[in-house]
Amino acid sequence: MRRKVFDLLASAVGAVIVVVLLVAGSLLLWGNSFATSNVHNQLAQQQIYFPTKAAFAHAKPGTEITPSMKPYLLQYAGQQLTTGAQAEAYADHFIAVHLSEMPYGGVYSKVSAASMANPKNAALAAEVQTTFRGTTLRGLLLEAYGFSQFAEIALWAAVASFILAGVMALLVGLGFWHARKVPESVELLAHAAAQRELTTV
After folding, report:
1. CB proximity list for 187: less than 8 A, separation 6 or greater
2. Residues 47, 32, 82: CA angle, nearest 5 degrees
3. What is the CA radius of gyration of the chain?
4. C-alpha distances in angstroms, 12 versus 6, 26, 46, 110, 167?
5. Which of helix, strand or coil describes residue 110?
6. What residues form DSSP beta bridges with 76?
7. N or C: where does the chain have the smaller number of CB atoms within 10 Å of the terminal CB?
8. Reported pTM
9. Strand partners for 49
10. How many domains does the chain have?
């Protein structure tokens, strides 16, 4: 095969790869934008706010704000919950803490089983409802956090795709440049063939 033909074919394949990478990067960016805006809009509609800095200043065990929450939640004090990172912090370091302080550790299946075993116990029935609401809200917030993580992965994958497309475009340009410079008569493996002939003589 002629070296010029090989260079042109390889460069053409590279150009196709560049297009594929650019399309992939664009789709990943769209996925990131869609997931990020969707998570933000859904969380904003719930109008959940973190406790204020004043509340954190009076953190005590057994109250609404415990000392264990401060390292995770103080940075968001007074803010509205609108991001995946905030949702994860609120779910795991606010709701989960209060659930763990409830009877049966706030585990819905245990509270529900206890209530069914004692159906006349109004306090247990109330605990079932509270636990159900808490675990449901926590699950929904963690789902929002999961989607925000997918959005972040999509963003970095898009960046990688665009970088690879840039590198490949450079190689394609060099390939076409080399194809123009190489003489028509040069064979792809001519040098290797000449070396083999010299070694057999």
Report:
1. 1, 2, 3, 193
2. 15
3. 31
4. 10, 21, 52, 64, 15
5. helix
6. none
7. C
8. 0.78
9. 80
10. 1
Show the tokens assigned to 133.
């609401």
User: What is the span of the domain harbouring residue 110?
Assistant: 3-200
Contact 43, 87 (CB under 8 A): yes
Q: What is the dihedral of CA 43, 49, 53, 59, to 10 degrees?
A: -100
Report how far Cα 171 is from the mean position of its chain's Cα atoms: 31
Q: Which two tokens stand for residue 10?
A: 């390889």
Given this model, what pLDDT does residue 150 score?
A: 96
Residues near 8 by beta carbon (within 8 Å), at least 6 away in sequence: 175, 176, 179
Determine the pLDDT at residue 133: 94
105 dihedral zone (left: phi>0; alpha: psi -120 to 50; beta): left
% of residues, the chain, pLDDT over 90: 69
Pair 45, 70: CB distance under 8 Å: no
Q: Provide the pLDDT for residue 2.
A: 73
What DSSP line would sit under 35-84, residue for residue? HHHHHHHHHHHHT-BPPPHHHHHT--TTSSS-GGGHHHHGGGTT-B--SH
